[in-house]
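Example record used in the benchmark description.
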Amino acid sequence: MNKLVFLMLLVGLLLVPAWAADVPKAEVFGGYQYTRVTVADTGINFNGWNASLTGNVNKWFGLAADFSGAYKTESGVSVKVHTYTFGPVISLNHEGTINPFVHALFGGAHASAAFEGSGAGTNGFAMAMGGGIDGKVSPHLAIRAVQVDWVYYRFEGVGESKNVRISTGVVFRF
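Model output (structure tokens):
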């Protein structure tokens, strides 16, 4: 009986590299983002960039570092919001053509505003929860068709939770 268990374990260990062969160890995403921030029941539309680095632990679980910049200029006032968040990612189908994923990201944000050479900024807490769909183009390239996140900001004791970020771009897989 012990020999059978040992043989099964040995075969299982030899097959582990074959199981992991289709799963990229790391993914780098870069692309465009549209963000709608609601402050005091007034919606503000931002455009910018979104980038992330994900290290895949196995075929369904990874850890991500997500960074973004959102920008808006109106009536001479320039507003910028940058986020840096980190957290777990669950991918549902790395082997297939379509790979849906969800994530929960926590970290910080920096918001700043400037008008005619004078400006001010503040740091705060940021949280993004959502997911998206990647379409595989080749083993090392995918298109992020869409990523949608609910984003929470908290600056100087005031929280804003009616925010959405929509991103699209390219994913490089290594």
